[in-house]
Design brief:
With 299 residues, this protein is of the alpha/beta class. It has helices at residues 9-25, 35-38, 55-58, 83-90, 107-116, 134-137, 148-161, 180-192, 208-214, 232-249, 260-269, 283-290, and strands at 71-79, 97-100, 120-127, 167-172, 196-199, 219-221, 224-225, 251-256, 279-281.
Length: 299
């Protein structure tokens, strides 16, 4: 119940007038006003969130991105397990991209030795092939018949094992890289970590590159296998194919392995590239070129 105001009419008029005067003396305040609207100078705009440099760019070997020569990226897989061959690879002129097994011993020291010589690092991730033998894939490969939680745990453990990488490429994987669900797990994890992906293309109808691209991961695919056949004459022919591909496309991505004939061929061939008009590039720069990512722009 409303209690009537029993003040005399004169006092009521005076109160009303006083209220009007007070209201006239105060600034008009919107009904939804906030303190910082009244005094905006006391509440400056919040600082923008700091930009985060993706891992693949932070760990990349720097290049002259405006170099117009055809680019060749040479990735050497299967590193870390057989030390004499690894040492021989490290001595090659670079920058090369060295892809390390996650189960190899002394990985921090080995990767650091490669970095000191100007090479880039990736994880060589074991994935299921047609054989179920871990002698072929290595221990703890990603498999299509495992629960996602186990595949994620294996992938994270492998990524954590190899330091200072720009991303990963698959070791084996003729079965794994045809499975979209498994490749989506890989793409999601490396996107979260700000890494890139290289599809080794161990089988022609791999979906790995497509799933990485759909997830927004900087990615590319291998163009030429240097030593799918270990004979020296075949390897020399593959090196010529790399040059032809680079001239045609502007770049070529080649994958080889630490084998005697391959190392002999690389020791002879790599020093000849500059005189032939090519530039040797790491995989990070080649992926950036393929994905039209300008490395001259500061992230």
């Amino acid at each position: 119940m409303t209690v009537p105001d029993r003040r005399p009419p004169t006092l009521l008029r005076r109160a009303a007038v006083s209220g009007l005067v007070a209201a006239a003396l105060l600034p008009a305040v919107p009904a939804v006003a906030k303190p910082w609207i009244l005094h905006p100078e006391a509440y400056p705009d919040p600082m923008p969130a700091p930009l985060v440099v993706p891992t693949w760019r932070r760990n990349a070997v720097p290049v002259a991105f405006n170099d117009e020569r055809p680019k060749i990226a040479v990735v050497v897989d299967d590193l870390g397990a057989i030390h004499p061959y690894t040492e021989r690879v490290l001595a090659l002129p670079g920058p090369l991209t060295l892809s390390w097994f996650p189960f190899a011993a002394d990985l921090p020291e080995q990767v650091a030795a490669g970095t000191a010589r100007g090479h880039e690092a990736t994880l060589h991730m074991p994935m299921q092939s047609f054989s179920n033998s871990t002698a072929q894939t290595g221990p703890d490969p990603l498999r299509i018949d495992l629960p996602p939680t186990i595949n994620i745990a294996r992938l994270r453990a492998a990524l954590d094992a190899v330091p200072d990488t720009v991303g990963l490429n698959n070791h084996m994987g003729a079965v794994a890289t045809r499975d979209a669900a498994l490749m989506d797990i890989v793409a999601a994890e490396i996107r979260t970590r700000g890494m890139l992906f290289l599809d080794s293309v161990t089988i022609p109808h791999s979906v790995a590159l497509a799933r990485a691209e759909i997830a927004g991961v900087p990615a590319a695919a291998r163009d030429v296998f240097i030593d799918h056949n270990a004979e020296a004459s075949v390897i020399r022919g593959q090196l010529a194919d790399i040059e032809a591909t680079a001239r045609r496309l502007g770049y070529a991505i080649a994958i080889g392995h630490p084998r005697p004939h391959t190392l002999e061929a690389l020791e002879w061939w790599l020093p000849t590239l500059a005189a032939k008009g090519f530039v040797l590039w790491p995989i990070s720069a080649t992926v950036a070129l393929r994905n039209r990512i300008d490395l001259t722009v500061t992230v």
